[in-house]
Write a structure and sequence with these properties.
alpha+beta
């Protein structure tokens, strides 16, 4: 079987299962090239009992996305030529309850698109059939909806959709190189959430970042509520502010 990406419609059945019984078990945890979303980082650092800064330093790398220019966080492979996930063991994933969205969603791929005229989001799913995966030979039948429910993907999709809104605002309001420390602020607010919350708690922190009342009210809430408030604030709080500063600077010149 060659690698294939096949559209799958709502309610359409496909055969797939993954367990220690499948002979390719753990193979998909090698040759790692794993991007992490803000909610991935939140769940992993919380499940490991770590501060966000500690987790990022211990397990991730940071680089700039080639299309958005925004910081992207990727998981650092374990040492060795196989580039294994740092959390994989012979028995499976040691952070399984908090595994990233892409691990949960596989063998599905979720494609999210936004209508520029209406702003409406549309999702589609595709089945990624890879030659190394024997899970497709298992007898168990799945549907996209059933797989999403069984793997606990809903909360991940909800918050990842907010991130898509941030990226859309970046492309619309602040194209080109990031200015005014916007990249550092984006990284801190999205990924190093404990450090960002600490700065907001400090005197002048709220004024420094010009956060709205929803973010201020969420500072003492749990991580998930706080992250959602930050991502909902960011399109206007970060990129519109940057756009206004650039226009003002142009007018002064």
């Amino acid at each position: 079987m060659e690698n294939e990406i096949i559209p799958v419609e709502p309610g359409q059945h496909f055969r797939f299962a993954c367990s220690q019984r499948v002979r390719c078990f753990n193979e998909c945890c090698r040759d790692l090239n794993q991007s992490l979303t803000p909610y991935d980082v939140l769940r992993l650092k919380r499940g490991l009992g770590m501060d966000s800064g500690e987790f990022l330093a211990a397990y991730t790398r940071q680089h700039l996305g080639p299309e958005t220019g925004l910081p992207v966080v990727t998981l650092e492979p374990a040492p060795g030529p196989e580039r294994k996930c740092p959390f994989v063991t012979r028995e499976g994933c040691r952070v399984y309850e908090d595994r990233p969205a892409s691990c949960r969603t596989y063998p599905l791929v979720r494609l999210l698109s936004r209508d520029r005229a209406t702003g409406r989001m549309t999702e589609r799913y595709f089945l990624m059939r890879e030659a190394h995966c024997f899970g497709f030979a298992e007898e168990r039948m799945q549907t996209p909806e059933g797989w999403i429910e069984s793997q606990g993907i809903g909360p991940y999709n909800e918050i990842n959709d907010l991130l898509m809104g941030v990226i859309a605002a970046r492309n619309r309001l602040d194209p080109g190189p990031l200015l005014m420390g916007a990249g550092r602020l984006f990284y801190s607010a999205c990924y190093d959430i404990d450090a960002f919350r600490a700065r907001l708690r400090e005197n002048g922190g709220e004024k420094e970042f010009d956060v709205d009342s929803a973010v201020r009210n969420a500072i003492e809430c749990d991580d998930t509520v706080f992250l959602k408030a930050v991502l909902e604030w960011m399109p206007t709080g970060l990129f519109q502010r940057t756009e206004k500063m650039v226009k003002k600077a142009g007018a002064v010149r």
